[in-house]
Amino acid sequence: MDPLDALEAVIRERRGADPSTSYVAKLSARGRAKIAQKLGEEAVETVIAAIADDREELTKEAADLVFHLLVLLADAGLSLADVRAELARREGVSGIAEKASRPA
Ligand SMILES: N=c1c2ncn([C@@H]3O[C@H](COP(=O)(O)OP(=O)(O)OP(=O)(O)O)[C@@H](O)[C@H]3O)c2ncn1[C@@H]1O[C@H](COP(=O)(O)O)[C@@H](O)[C@H]1O
Fold first, then answer.
1. What CATH number is attached to the domain comprising 63?
2. Is the ATP-binding keyword given for this protein (predicted)?
3. Which residue from 7, 18, 23, 30 has its CB within 8 A of the most atoms of ligand 1, so it is best to mutate?
4. Which residue, 39, 73, 95, 104, has fewest beta-carbon neighbours within 10 Å?
């Protein structure tokens, strides 16, 4: 199984766990605004690592960012499948536009 799909499944399961033993449950219990705030903080930390050209830190912050995005998506009842479908739709749209702009 893809590691992101596996993490998404764990997050869905842990949302209902005991907040004293689960970070996902604890954060989810604090509500959508708090989850979104954490995502924003991780995004800022990712930007700082990128600007500092610190590849090791950027990798870690990117992992934190993706993890918190998955927690937010789960809270909103959305999934990676929804994001993949949107990306595929855009790829389809741009693919059609690219073909249309090519000379016959
Ligand atoms: N991948 C992660 C993961 N990445 C980051 N984090 C947590 O995200 C938090 C971010 O750090 P911060 O210092 O910003 O946050 P904090 O101080 O804990 O919280 P605040 O009080 O500041 O809001 C840390 O507590 C990290 O442990 C994660 N917590 C859990 N997972 C995975 O999620 C799954 C479920 O975890 P549990 O819900 O804990 O069982 C497991 O597979 C875990 O490996």
1. 1.10.287.1080
2. yes
3. 23
4. 104
